[in-house]
Structures are given as structure tokens and as C-alpha cells.
Amino acid sequence: MAATAAVADAETDGLPISGKQSTTTQAKKSAAERAHRAGEAVGEVAGRVLAVLLLLGLLIVGVVRWEREWSRPYDPVEYTVTIAAVSGLDPATKDLPHPAPPALLRIDPACNLTLAVASPSTAARRECVQAGTTVEVSYLRSGVPLATGPAPAFCVEVGEREEGSVVAWGDGVRLPGFVLDSLAADVLRGAPEFGVKLTPPIPYCASRPMFCSTTVDVISCWAKAGGGPAPCSVSRETVQSPFRRCHGPAGRGTTWRLIFHSQRKNSAIRASLMLARHGFSTLV
Questions:
Q1: Where are the domains positioned within the chain?
Q2: Tens-binned pLDDT, residue by residue, of the chain (284 aa)
Q3: How far apart are CA 113 and CA 38, in angstroms?
């Protein structure tokens, strides 16, 4: 080592002063460049680490927010129905023999209802009553439909409340004698109760030769005529889409009509198919 140092000193001693300064400057520049490159490498690694940490932070925030948004319990929308008045429950006996046979007794009921939809501030989304929704009013003790009518179409935003008027009516509704007697007794007591059912429009399956089923949200309520708002319940029910109008072997203008019942109330859907041709328009 001493010999090597002596040789280096001897070689350096033989150089001029400018040569000695140039060698020292180059060594300093090389050291500075190495330090700069090391600093750049450290900065690049630190930048990547910070980027990864930032992405992890954003991911954690997103997951937490998603869990709060989707896992929180949403409150359901509240439906209420108020039956303001019901008329036409007395059977018309004019031009009928006395006493009139029960088979000839018919009523023309008309119902004035108010449908209210209240959406809490914790609801999941806005609620809409679709255009084409039908309202069916039935007698509570028998379940026999008395009147039908269209429901108004409107939407309720989260945290708001809206209501709409509904008029349902029936024309020449025929009821069994015992149902008429029960209805008359309830009217005399001033406490007739009716069932109200709202069914959204059913998709039209024109591409199928038979029928197709679909599941819809059906709103059901029980309310007294002249009483206050009655709460409703929402249930999923499977219904059948009606047949399309076709021109088949039975003749031109043949109309296929499907009478369907809810699968919720029946073990299986009972479909009754009736053929109404020209000249038999009174068939019901």
C-alpha cells in the first residue's frame, strides 16, 4: 500500500498544477453525479410509494363509502289510501218484478279515493306510480270486485310526499244474494269496508303465441268508506300477460281474453279462456 501511494505521488508529482486540479475536479463531478443519481432514485422510489399509498387510501375510502351506501337499512316507501265516498251500492229495482230475483239485481258502484305516497328521507330511491296502473275496489267480506279505474301517474322524490285522486266505477255489477245482503247491512251500520288493489301495467307479450308470466309489485289496502287513511302493503305477485288480438282459424276479429288470478292466493294460476265472436258481444 505504501508503495502504491508512493507511486501515485510520484506520478502526480510529475504532473503540472493544472493537471492536478483537473483530476480533482473530475473526481468531484463524478461524486456529485453519483449523489444526484442516488437522490433521483430515492425520489423516484418515494414517489412510487406515495402513489401506492394514495391509491390504497382512495380504495379504502371508496370501500367504506360503498358499504355505508349499500349496506345501510333503507326505509320503505309508505302507501296509504283514503276512501272519501262510495255511491251506487243500492241495486236498481226499477222495471223489475217485486220481489226481484237476486240474479237480476245489479249495482253501479262509484268510489272516490285518494292515493298518497310518502317517501322517507332514508329511502333508497324515488318512487313512481306508473302510467297504466289500475285500481280495483272489492267488497271486504267477499272479495268480489266492484269497481275499477286508472291511477294517476306521478313520482315522489326521496323525503317528499305526493297524492293523487282516483275514481273507480263499475257498471251493472252482479253480486250473489248473500253478498248483497251483507253489503246492505254494512251500509246501514255505516261501516262498509273495501279492499283496494293497485296493479302496475303488465308487459305485452305480442311475440309469443301463448302467454308469459311476469312478477310485479302489487299494493293492497283495506279501508272504510269515509274513514281515514289506511296503510297499504306491497307484495310481489306473479301474473299472466293477456293474450294478443289475433286473426286465426276461429275467424276474423277473434278476441282472446284471459282472466287471471294471483299465484299468491292460488296454488296455481287458473286461466279461463273465452272466445267472443261477432254476434256474441254480450258474453261476459
A1: 16-71, 78-241, 242-284
A2: 444 444 445 444 554 555 555 666 776 667 777 777 777 777 788 888 888 888 888 888 888 777 766 666 788 899 999 999 898 888 765 444 455 555 557 888 999 999 999 999 888 888 999 998 999 999 988 888 899 999 999 999 999 999 999 999 998 888 888 888 888 888 888 878 899 999 998 766 555 545 566 788 899 999 998 888 999 998 888 876 654 443 333 333 333 333 333 333 333 333 333 333 333 333 33
A3: 82
Q: State the pTM of this model.
A: 0.57
> In whole angstroms, how far apart are CA 229 and each of 19, 76, 81, 183, 235?
105, 17, 5, 21, 19
For residue 62, what is its C-alpha cell?
371508496
CA dihedral 263, 264, 266, 272 (to 10 degrees): -30
Cβ neighbors of 194 (< 8 A, separation 6 or more) are 83, 86, 111, 137, 138, 139, 140, 146, 222, 223, 224, 225
Please state, as a whole number, how many other Cβ atoms lie within 10 Å of the Cβ of residue 105. Answer: 19
CA–CA distance, 258 with 248 (Å, rounded to integer): 17
